[in-house]
């Protein structure tokens, strides 16, 4: 009946930072390449940080992936598959990454992995965590929001209920993905590059404080939780027949109400949102989601109570 | 010794509009596909308009090109080459397009070709003409600037002195390319889509007026003329070592003065512009130019006197 004032967790010793999980998202690729040339700025006294390039072959070709999306490949199905001649490059790669930084779910796995992404959507400096139940990442997000004040850092909780984790950082014991935009694929913008660099520096400072025994009290925090996806309208032949409506474009994380316009057909008609409740769209008009016909991700905004945290 | 008040030129009867010369520049691709489904809005009484898709295989894969840049392939060298087994797809395609809409330089060629492009640079609604000596396109640009007032339409003269024309619209007797941005590759934004559609409608109205005998008087006009290109700084291994400076990013067509910053290295140092005169950069941080290591195109701003024009 006597609960401790905060949850206790072991200090972190091995941290990885991945750029280029998608080979055409350039902020993280150029950052990881820079750190591989000059790792000094990643150094902290209480833990080691290892930068690496997620998908070298996709980076070389400057494409999202070669065979299949690497960041959907870290499931039991793929990680436990046996080698086969015709398997996609990313399945082989995922098993290798799992050997190096995991194995996923094991005691040997890295303590933490950052994964660096860009989007063509106007998502600003978005922090992606699997769910609000991930205590250390939620404390890290809170710390970033308090100390990185150049822009708001919305928190995006990506795991649908009952879904298995599938992202590259699920290989480590805990993780955080950064999703900075808008930035076109294949392009590096100096402003987003420095934002990403500063957020990683801030997150490493948090780990240092945690390792050194700082007590992080409980807090309340706002976060967006994914509830589903909105597909593009299509012609009978499968081609998309409408664009994201100009009034929705660039409005990531802002409320979308029932009967608000969401699409404009190529002939000029408006299509309205037919849901019954207000949602908060994200990944609006993301280039990489056309192949899945996804126009945006639907989210709800919630307040979460996060318990306190300190090291063991 | 008695010059006529304006140059006379034959009316136009065959006009083509090309989308998807680059397979990942979506405004023109979706416009051309829309017009192929429903060509009504292209109809005018005095001439015929044919929409077409420039590079179908690149559009299918949503990439700029498959083998080589189609929009650099309309030179004598490629158009007069004989079929070979290992030649790039775009060389075969260029000969086919030249047969359909040309032959380049011949009396049978189409009278006019529009070519629809997007850029990741902040070039707004840019009008690209080969040179100020192209009388009818310069009058068309002037007409667009007077009648399409939603945004400024800078004129970009792309041909370097002594250079052969190489673009897809050089197959027709005259041409105009639209270059709308910023828009990420693989993405269609409703605002740019409607701008492109409106500019084409305006340009077709101009042709209609010209064909029907409207006299277009002489005028003075400002235009930007290419003088060269600025490469990215590189490491000895050929990788770029710097980004476009945040103060230059998104500043297309604005003056860049000697000693203004142009690059920021990944380590954080500034690199300044070392030229002796003010220039006007364009295509700043264009995604497709990284493979050529081109950071921006250098331009000069000039006033040109354009003689009057009327139909024969």
Automatic annotation (TrEMBL), chains A, B:
Span of domain AstE/AspA barrel-sandwich hybrid: 220-301
GO CC annotations on file: apical plasma membrane; cytosol
E.C. number: 3.5.1.114
A molecular-function term among this protein's GO annotations: metal ion binding
Keyword annotations: Cell membrane, Cytoplasm, Hydrolase, Membrane, Metal-binding, Zinc
Keyword Zinc on entry: yes
TM annotation in the entry: none
Reactions catalysed: an N-acetyl-L-cysteine-S-conjugate + H2O = an S-substituted L-cysteine + acetate; an N-acyl-aromatic L-alpha-amino acid + H2O = an aromatic L-alpha-amino acid + a carboxylate
Active site: 179
Keyword 4Fe-4S assigned: no
Names of the cofactor(s): Zn(2+)
Binding site for Zn(2+): 22, 25, 117
Range of residues in the leader sequence: none
Primary location class: membrane
Domain spans labelled Succinylglutamate desuccinylase/Aspartoacylase catalytic: 15-207
Membrane topology: Peripheral membrane protein
Location(s), subcellular: Apical cell membrane; Cytoplasm
Pfam families given in the database record: AstE_AspA_cat (PF24827), AstE_AspA_hybrid (PF04952)
Cofactor stoichiometry and binding remark: Binds 1 zinc ion per subunit.
SUPFAM superfamilies in alphabetical order: Zn-dependent exopeptidases
HAMAP family membership: Aspartoacylase
Family, per entry: Belongs to the AspA/AstE family. Aspartoacylase subfamily.
UniProt name for this protein: N-acyl-aromatic-L-amino acid amidohydrolase
Species: Gopherus evgoodei (Goodes thornscrub tortoise)
